Amino acid sequence: MGNFANLTASSEVLGLNEQAGTCLACGRFSEAIAACHQAIKTQPHHFGAYHILGQVLQAQHKNSAAVRAYRIALELNPDCTKAQQGLSQILSGEDLWFPPGDYVSSGLRKIKCDRYFPNLVVDNISSKWQYHRREIPHNRYVDQQFPTVGFITRDEAHILYNTALQFAGKPALEIGCWLGWSTCHLALGGVILDVIDPGLANPVFASRVGSALQAAGVTERVELIAGYSPAKVAEIARSCHRRWSLIFIDGNHEAPGPFLDAQICEQVAADDALILFHDLVSPDVFAGWNYFRDRGWNVAIYQTKQIMGVAWRGKVKPIAHQPDPSVSWTLPSHLQWQWILNHDSDSVKNDGYYYPIIDKLVADNPGQMTVAEYRYIADIINHQSPGNLLIFGVGKDSGLWMDINRHGKTVFLEDSQGWLTQVKNTYADLEAYHIDYQTRRQNWAELLMKFEQGEDCLSLDLPNWIYDISWDWILVDGPAGYTPETPGRMKSIYLASQLAIKYGDTDVFVHDCDRPVEIAYTSYFFPKNIFIKQINKLNHYKL
């Protein structure tokens, strides 16, 4: 424990720390730093200003300086949990820090788009909308030049992003994009996005949205279209032969706007589709969402600051969500008795949950992966899921991977059409694609030599969206490579390395690394400094 002098702050220092915290929450970092420095000058041995200073520096991505501030705070008070958490985030590489007043549901994959919006500030007072839930203490973000219109909250943006991850590579539609905050979160989830908003006819508005998308690196996946829904939606669907799998409705909030948006969206939605609404706290928006219930869709709501609604049909499901447990939640009268999507209690299984399943899988299928190899991969994915999982090769273990990552996106690539058909008959929800490697294992050395000489001989003909997804995990367990005539894993190892390098932060697992081809190609395409661990014949790399 720190001594009493280090733990007790004077009234002046308490005031300065409070001022620094307020400035931090509002994004006024220079003022926050000045207040911290004044507090430290006034009372050099009090920990409080140091941990706030660490938070400010971390928010600015000045991690080295933040680490120093956190460590001083912990020297003065080893029990300072905020300093412990901040230091742990940086040292573990989890560099996502959200200001006080933000909430993001547990179980959701985190993302931070703030740097794409230079005018982003917290403003909890400027909204005049009668349905703004001021009693919910979550930050309301705005563009400081247009403070009367707010963005969706941090938690709501993460619902968008994590939902989009499930639809990566598929067509999506956004109705109403207000300066692009929601648009960025959708596009970064990997969907091919059409955005319809009358404001895009305004050059200033369109430029602001375009700049944010360019900064986020997603312009190639987004089409910005000026116009009004429902007419423009119908026009694009007709002229481009479009049916959207994911739709976000956040346009005109006054009747009959949301109802008309709902009607046209049902007509242009894919057979397997999910539709999200924002601001169900408004009865007019509720009418649009309720249309889907009347039409036989599955419907539910997310308990967020402004309440989001979801409707879905076919072979898709909404993501799980945990409402902020620190808030005493209520519902407006028109939403009483609606199904609230709470966090799925078994969305992340406890350590060891899959072990009996793995034991039986290995016992029934000897000669494949070992128990230790399966457990190693399963534990890593289970702790990080949901996410994007790419697997080379289908098999009797396909159901295991689908279950572990059941709230994420799992894609299989298989070269044997007969085996693919057999596994699809077993797992109806399997998302798998047939590919032709056009190689033989016996030519592996010649292929590598040609590649070194600049020849493009290791590429695969795959759908473009495969290359557009940021894969969290890639497992190379195919194609076959046990005889000279089999395709060998030259191309799958090469493609795994390229997909991982493109976006980074990807775990790559390569099986059968006791064989010459796997040894040669992993040594060539995966540098030694990214090697993590070897379990029996399984190599783990982290790019």
Automatic annotation (TrEMBL):
The entry's keywords = Membrane, TPR repeat, Transmembrane, Transmembrane helix
The primary location reported for this protein is membrane
Highest taxon of source: Bacteria
What's the short name of a Pfam family annotated to this entry?
A: IRX15_IRX15L_GXM
Transmembrane among keywords: yes
Q: Which SMART domains match?
A: TPR (SM00028)
A Gene Ontology biological process noted in the UniProt record is: xylan biosynthetic process
How does the UniProt record describe the way this protein sits in the membrane? Single-pass membrane protein
Q: Which InterPro entries match?
A: IRX15/GXM/AGM, SAM-dependent_MTases_sf, TPR-like_helical_dom_sf, TPR_rpt
Spell out the residue ranges that the record assigns to TPR repeats. 47-80
Location(s) in or outside the cell = Endomembrane system; Membrane
PROSITE patterns hit by this protein: TPR
Q: Does the keyword Thylakoid apply?
A: no
Listed GO cellular component terms? endomembrane system; membrane
Return the SUPFAM superfamilies for the record.
S-adenosyl-L-methionine-dependent methyltransferases (SSF53335), TPR-like (SSF48452)
Quote the protein name from its UniProt record.
Tetratricopeptide TPR_2 repeat protein
